[in-house]
Amino acid sequence: SDPFPFYGEHQAGIVTPAQDRLHFVSFDVTTDKRADLVELLQEWTAAAARLTQGKEAGAFGAVGVPPEAPPDDTGEALGLPASGLTLTIGFGASLFDKRFGLEGKRPAALADLPKFPGEQLIPEISGGDICVQACAHDPQVAVHAIRNLARIGFGKVSVRWSQLGFGRTSSTSRAQATPRNLMGFKDGTNNLKLEDADLLQQQLWAAAQDGSAWMAGGSYVVTRKIRMTVETWDRTSLAEQEQIFGRNKGEGAPLGKKAEFDPLDFAAKGPDGQPYIKVDAHVRLAHPSANGNAHLLRRGYNFVDGSDGLGRLDAGLFFIAYQRDPRKQFVPVQLSLAKNDQLNEYIKHVSSGLFACPPGVRDAGDYWGRTLF
Ligand code: HEM
User: Fold this and answer.
1) Does residue 136 sit in helix, strand or coil?
2) What is the mean pLDDT of residues 281-285?
3) Which residue, judged by its Cα, is nearest atom 4 of ligand 1?
4) How far does residue 227's CA lie from ligand 1's centre (Å)?
5) What is the pLDDT of residue 9?
6) Quick one: which atom of ligand 1 is closest to the CA of 183?
7) What's the pTM?
8) In the prediction, which pLDDT does 65 show?
9) Which residues of 59-80 are buried (b: 16+ CB within 10 A; e: fewer)?
10) pLDDT at position 275, please?
């Protein structure tokens, strides 16, 4: 398939039909010079424009340099196609400080997330100054891209944490079939999608009138590494599993309905006089109607980071969601889930990230974050 275009009004990797593989990285900036940071963003942009088109990271490539110099590409993607690679950058709140003279540019929507009930965040795998989301159909291509950005950033940034993901847990286009998460349920049925043009304008893309003109055409991403206690889940009855989500496992249909895309009817009652979709079911609590019409564009991935030494898989969902303003979207939804969701018995949030993803790069003369500097 053709590579996704790198240049455009919005960054690729947001409404782009979700690819199957993820390598997400968060960097800390180690230089305190603004000029170094800008230069790095320019170098990264040039490399990203090449990598996403299936080319090597640098103009010489993995084997085109004089033998005494280190190559400007690491080589493990030689011979592989672009594989649908997208690279999406975001800036964390910690970047907006006096090191770079950016104190006044921090968007109001990039407000620190509140502490949510039940979360057990590990600081070493949370936050960071700059994130890059690499998505591709081939994990080798996604990892190659992140590795080369880290290589280019040597001396200016260091990797704070990174996460691999497989098996997208969302559809972001109606042309895609809904995939399944590691609990075995279809995930992404009621997601914001590429085709929802009006909702994307209202709920996904930041606008100049939101207060930070430099973010116009950008979006805010929240990441949450959510560990699943799959061993406990696997001993839960099918009926219980379906009640927790409010959808059936086979089709993904709302309980009481037949087909996946049948509309949710929260008033409909079953033979026992109780609503088919229980008051504490995940889809009821997360639905826009329960959260001031807040929508999210979810773009998460499954992860299995081996096992935990205690005989359990270190598995779960690396949740990624894009939106126009997390204060009005992710925060209220997650507050309601953290308080009431029956799913909480089987999950634990262990990392968190929040980043402002700037608008797209217009052309070869433009660079990631130019409107901020
Ligand atoms: C819907 C799974 C965490 C927000 C769903 C659905 C499933 C699911 C199976 C139904 C299908 C669909 O419409 O996509 C999970 C799992 C989670 C998780 C396994 C954790 C491991 C979260 C979190 C949020 C969230 C942290 C946001 C704070 C939503 C939303 C919907 C949804 C907005 C759509 C509700 C609707 O409009 O019908 N989730 N989810 N989920 N989830 Fe989650």
Assistant:
1) strand
2) 98
3) 286
4) 14
5) 98
6) 19
7) 0.98
8) 86
9) eebbeeeeeeeebbbbeebeee
10) 97
Q: Do 355 and 258 have their domain in common?
A: yes
In a domain? residue 68: yes
Q: Residues 223, 337: one domain?
A: yes
Which ligand 1 atom sits nearest the alpha carbon of residue 246?
10
Which atom of ligand 1 is closest in space to residue 334's alpha carbon? 28
Residues 173-197: pLDDT tens digits?
Answer: 999 999 999 999 999 999 999 999 9
What is residue 21's predicted lDDT score, i.e. its pLDDT?
98
227 lines ligand 1 (CB under 6 A): no
SS3 317: strand
In a domain, 5, yes or no: no
**What is the number of domains present in the chain?**
2
Going from the Cα of 286 to the center of ligand 1, the distance in angstroms, rounded, reads 7
Same domain, 252 and 152: no
What residue owns the CA closest to ligand 1's atom 9?
187
Query: How close is the Cα of 27 to the center of ligand 1, in Å?
Result: 28
* 125 and 195 both lie in a single domain: no
Same domain, yes or no: 193 and 316: yes
**CB burial readout 270-308, b (16+ within 10 A) else e:** eeeeebbbbebbbbbbbbbebbeebbbbbbbbbbbeeee
Residue 32 lies in a domain: yes
> Cα(267)–Cα(278) distance, rounded to whole angstroms?
10
Looking at the fold, whether 177 and 137 belong to one and the same domain comes out as: no
Note whether 218 and 131 are same-domain residues.
Answer: no
Evaluate whether residue 370 is within a structural domain.
no
Question: Rounded to an integer, what distance in angstroms lies between the CA atom of residue 351 and that of residue 125?
Answer: 6
Report the Cα–Cα distance between both ends of the chain, in Å, rounded: 35
Instruction: Decide: 330 in ligand 1 pocket, CB within 6 A.
Output: yes
316 and 253 part of one domain: yes
Q: Is the CB of 91 under 6 A from ligand 1?
A: no
Residue 307: what are its φ and ψ, rounded to 5°? -125, 170
Domain hosting 314: range is 171-359
Q: Does 189 contact ligand 1 (Cβ within 6 A)?
A: yes
Which of 199, 241, 298, 339 for mutating ligand 1's site (highest number of atoms within 8 Å of CB)?
Answer: 298
The string of pLDDT tens digits covering residues 92-144 is: 999 999 999 999 999 999 999 999 999 999 999 999 999 999 999 999 999 99
